[in-house]
Design brief:
8-stranded mixed sheet, binds zinc ion
Length: about 400
């Protein structure tokens, strides 16, 4: 039996403070998701605390733990994972950061952390940015949409630096070193220089003049964060004996897969945003199952709209994801399907919370439970009860009969 894991990023939510007449419900409870409901009904359900009860997780630490890599041991920051997800060549000691193309006003106040979800023209901006004279070797590379990565290479640099803020309405302050180390002070200085120069070089860039004419937010600054060096991840095949593949629109998840030695399936229609073609990704995942034992299909759009505090779009994305889930359930053969959210993302707060998130195993030989709907509330009645991220792969391995017995 094979295994398909579908992570619907930040799908889980809290009771919405106010949404028309349907207040006190979550987006999963409002959305029309018959296929997810059906799988919850037929499957084994539960709740997931990716890092442990009460611990708020980023997508990076959450997904690492779900794949069985203890983030408290291996995590070195989000930047390196994003860097690994691009086709950029990196060395062991490179300082890796993830960045946003963003919009600031003349006073450096952040207006839009995604530069209006820029999706066109970034290849020209990338070229211009790489012409900056920074005094150290560096490379900026686009990832997907408004996301890009920055790699710094020099003898005495350190990842112990603050993040640039991505909180809209706040002024972009200078990045400070996190300790007195010479390398940290130098790295902070280099990054501040880069941010300043990115603004100077981008503010009147032709791509941005055109965006302004079209009433769009200009991508006039680069905001780097999540500094770190490349982590070492044990090879996924050696760890579990499963040939793994990853289908995702975002660099973070591709990077994790790449570092774990899994195959990255590129789907041109996958954007990591709500305009992503979920059906194309679902089909690519089914295809990958023909040649792999384990496929991770990651959907990002649900988390994006939650950060944007856009309830309406979250419901819409959930319904579109549900159609893809329906297609998968009708076409998948001899495969255990696991559907989960890596964490809860509250659309009221616009950020992740530690509230447990749904997890459903479907198409296995397990004893089913009494859950009837794919919602946070229903999952409290699930037979899988409440598990941590590090428990997910062991549960899957047991179900597909690839677990090793301890003792005789
Ligand atoms: Zn996430
Ligand atoms: Zn998020």
């Amino acid at each position: 039996m094979k295994s398909l894991m579908i992570i619907i990023d930040g799908m889980a939510d809290r009771e919405l403070k106010a949404y028309k007449d349907k207040s006190k419900k979550t987006p999963l409870e409002i959305a029309n998701i018959p296929n997810l409901d059906q799988m919850a009904k037929e499957g084994l359900c539960g709740l997931l605390d990716s890092l442990g009860i009460g611990k708020r997780a980023g997508s990076d630490t959450a997904i690492l733990s779900i794949l069985g890599y203890d983030p408290y041991d291996v995590y070195t920051g989000r930047g390196p994972l994003e860097v690994a997800g691009t086709k950029i060549k990196f060395k062991e000691d490179d300082i890796c950061l993830r960045c946003n193309y963003a919009t600031v006003n003349d006073d450096f106040v952040l207006l839009d952390r995604t530069a209006g979800h820029i999706s066109e023209g970034t290849e020209y901006l990338e070229k211009t940015l790489n012409e900056i004279d920074l005094g150290v070797e560096f490379k900026l590379k686009n990832s997907a949409g408004y996301r890009c990565v920055l790699l710094l290479r020099d003898d005495d640099l350190s990842p112990s630096v603050e993040d640039a803020t991505t909180e809209e309405g706040k002024k972009i302050e200078e990045i400070k070193p996190l300790d007195d180390d010479r390398g940290s002070i130098k790295t902070a200085k280099v990054l501040n220089e880069f941010i300043k120069k990115s603004y100077e070089i981008l503010k009147d860039h032709p791509v941005n003049s055109k965006r302004k004419e079209e009433g769009k937010m200009p991508a006039n600054i680069i905001l780097p964060r999540g500094a770190g060096v490349i982590p070492r991840l044990e090879n996924f095949y050696e760890k579990y004996g499963l040939r793994g593949a990853v289908v995702s629109g975002i660099g973070l998840v591709k990077g994790m897969g790449h570092l774990a030695g899994m195959d990255i399936i590129d789907v041109p229609e996958a954007t990591g945003h709500i305009d992503s073609d979920f059906m194309a990704k679902g089909k690519a995942a089914l295809d990958a199952l023909k040649t792999h034992d384990f496929v991770l299909l990651h959907i990002e759009g649900t988390d994006e709209v939650s950060h944007d505090k856009n309830v309406k779009e979250k419901i819409m994305v959930l319904e579109r994801v549900d159609e893809m889930i329906g297609y998968i359930s009708r076409h998948v053969e001899d495969t255990l399907v696991t559907i989960l959210a890596d964490h809860t993302t509250s659309t009221d707060l616009g950020d992740h919370t530690a509230d447990p998130a749904p997890i459903v195993l479907w198409n296995g030989d397990f004893i089913t439970d009494k859950v009837r709907e794919f919602t946070e509330r229903e999952m409290y009645r699930g037979g899988l009860h409440r598990i941590r991220g590090m428990d997910v792969i062991p549960v899957i391995l047991d179900q597909i009969n690839k677990s090793k017995k301890f003792g005789s």
